[in-house]
Amino acid sequence: MEYKTDIEIAQATPMEHISAIAEKCGIGPEYVEQYGNYKAKIDLKLLTDRAAEPNGKLILVTAITPTPAGEGKTTTTVGLGDALRKIGKKSVIALREPSLGPVFGVKGGAAGGGYAQVVPMEDINLHFTGDFHAIGAANNLLAAMLDNHIYQGNALGIDPSTITWRRCVDMNDRQLRFVVDGLGGRVNGRPREDGYDITVASEIMAVFCLAADLADLKRRLASIIVAYTYDGRPVTAGDLKAAGAMTALLKDALKPNLVQTLEHTPAFVHGGPFANIAHGCNSIVATRLALKLGDYCVTEAGFGADLGAEKFLDIKCRMAGLKPDAVVVVATVRALKMHGGLDKKQLGEEDLVALRAGLPNLLQHVDNIRNVFHLPCVVAVNRFPTDTEGELKLVEDECRKLGVNVALSQVWGQGGEGGIALAQEVVRLCQTPREEEFTYAYPDGTSIQDKLDAIVSWIYHGGKAVLTPAAKKQAKQLIDLGFGDLPICMAKTQYSFSDNPKLLGAPSGFDVTVRNLKVSAGAGFIVALTGDIMTMPGLPKAPAAEKIDVDENGVISGLF
Questions:
Q1: Is 351 helix (H, G, I), strand (E, B) or coil?
Q2: The pLDDT of residue 130 is above 50
Q3: Cβ distance 172 to 198 under 8 Å?
Q4: Are 266 and 24 in contact (CB under 8 A)?
Q5: How many CB atoms lie within 10 A of CB 211?
Q6: Contact criterion met (CB below 8 Å) for 7 and 558
Q7: Phi/psi of residue 243, each to 5°?
Q8: Which of 109, 172, 249, 532 could be stapled to 560 by a disulfide with Cβ–Cβ 3.0 to 4.6 Å?
Q9: DSSP assignment letter at 435
């Protein structure tokens, strides 16, 4: 059989007009704002008009700790949505928008893969409907108004050495991590050390995805802290009178984007915070719309369950009042063998020893979902041709010991048909009476240290969180300012349960060092920076951008 790339599969599959997709999930034409034939913004008034209607079931798709072998979380999410439709369930998918940084960097496209994709994949992976550009513009408007306020006399008494707000660009560019700006004499600003973040790491992105509506968005934007005065008082975007203009830039972006899968299942693709830096979930408004429009809303959270799922449950669900009905943990035999010590080049042969050594990574994620958050769970093994029956049986047997079933997923090659077993298990979990109530990893009202320790001990299975002297000072300041009760957003490597990316599998006996604590007052959480985590990635030696091209007819190639 001739091998086709993801983009070739997407380009060869006819799409339905977006009005037909909207009609499929009950969206009237009065709510649809078309962006061409295959994309649309959906008016937020639809949420208000459907407020009294019941919600569908909320399905969270997460994964094991990622490896270079790949796990296929987005692919599984899309395939599960298609499979639910195949067994007669009205499903709607809710995903994040890809960032240009990873698209042109290491990862490539992020719209699913094979025959389980959202389309038009080129648009979704590139400029889409302009949401990220609007978020970047709002971020940089705030930065410009902050520096201009200081230049124009500094009526608020801002201490320039305390400025925390950085400009952003949606690109991997290590050259911009640390810059000196304002050079060229007084008329060109005040010289200071500065830097850029990638747009998906901006607090604006987090605020955008956690806002309930336009009024809540403006309130959250006004609460963003950008600096401190000489006497230690926080300075906000509201103090700078920037919130109104920022909201104006984001007004249309906040409307969720409707697209479709290759099998024409409706999909909202909206917002895109990174899960190793931010909270890693699509927008609350898109999730709520999907819940109102479908019997099943299938959504995902970024990276492994220790990052994306923990933040989805402890931050997004806490703020939005959501309760998942089932969780899917995606794994591959190949990735588990890497956690067991094999090199990527050795993954094609059966190796039960390496698989058994790597399985604790999967089992720890499953145990967290079942016994920390008390949610029903299924393991989706994204099957590869090199997986042997012995390897698959070992995964199934070990998961069964935790009371969790395994469903093989072959959606990459078969689309929804390859996810029917998974869809049936998800439906069974949702229809089975729940014995336990959903709980968070830590309750409301606990201290910053206790919340950090809870995440490290309960989710990572480590010892405790160790704060550097600087972080201890920041914790005291945050408590004094009234932010001590906010949830925690851990900024941690995605490659390990620990803060050391080299510790694969399910390590133990480690502490996690928190080197910096920063409040995201608009988003409503405290960011705890650990390890060498960066808010501006760099490009690899051979960026994915080198393989992307467009022919004389405008057809794009090489986009994964």
A1: coil
A2: yes
A3: yes
A4: yes
A5: 25
A6: yes
A7: -60, -40
A8: 109
A9: S
Residue 1 has pLDDT above 70, yes or no: no
pLDDT digits (tens, 9 = 90+) for 226-267: 999 999 999 999 999 999 999 999 999 999 999 999 999 999
Q: Which helix (H) or strand (E) holds 448?
A: helix 448-454
**172 Cα distance to chain centroid:** 17
| SS3 (DSSP) at 160 | helix
Question: How far apart are alpha carbons 556 and 549 in whole angstroms?
Answer: 6
Nearest-CA neighbor of 266 among 234, 236, 237, 289?
289
d(CA 283, CA 475): 28
As a whole number of angstroms, the distance between CA 75 and CA 84 comes to 14
The reported pLDDT for the residue numbered 227 is: 97
Instruction: Give the containing element (helix H, strand E) for 144.
Output: helix 131-151
Report pLDDT for 277.
Answer: 83
**Any idea which residues carry the catalytic annotation?**
73, 75, 96, 107, 275, 303, 384, 412
What average pLDDT does the segment 44-73 reach?
Answer: 94
Do residues 295 and 56 touch, judged by C-beta distance below 8 A? Answer: yes
Amino acid code (one letter) for 459? I
DSSP 229: B
Q: What is the mean pLDDT of residues 410-430?
A: 97
Structure tokens at 517: 């604590």
437: buried, middle or exposed (CB in 10 Å: 19+, 13-18, 0-12)?
exposed
The residue among 280, 253, 211, 258 whose CA lies nearest residue 92 is 258
Using a 10 angstrom Cβ sphere, with 0-12 exposed, 13-18 middle and 19 or more buried, the burial of residue 213 is middle
Can you give the pTM of this predicted structure?
Answer: 0.95
420-431 vs 73-86: helix axis angle to the nearest 10?
80
> What is the residue-averaged pLDDT of the chain?
94
User: What is the C-alpha separation between 250 and 137, in angstroms, rounded?
Assistant: 9
Q: Cα–Cα distances in Å, from 306 out to 460, 493, 495? A: 7, 10, 10
Number of helices and strands in the chain (H, E): 20, 24
pLDDT-derived band at 362 (thresholds 50, 70, 90) equals very high
Q: How many CB atoms lie within 10 A of CB 120?
A: 20
Tell how strand 91-95 and strand 257-261 pair up: unpaired
Nearest to 209, CA basis, from 132, 282, 290, 258: 282
The one-letter amino acid code at 481 reads: L
Cα 524 to Cα 284: distance, rounded to the nearest angstrom: 14
Summarised one tens digit per residue, pLDDT across range 139-174 is 999 999 999 999 999 999 999 999 999 999 999 999
User: pLDDT band for position 434 (50/70/90)?
Assistant: confident
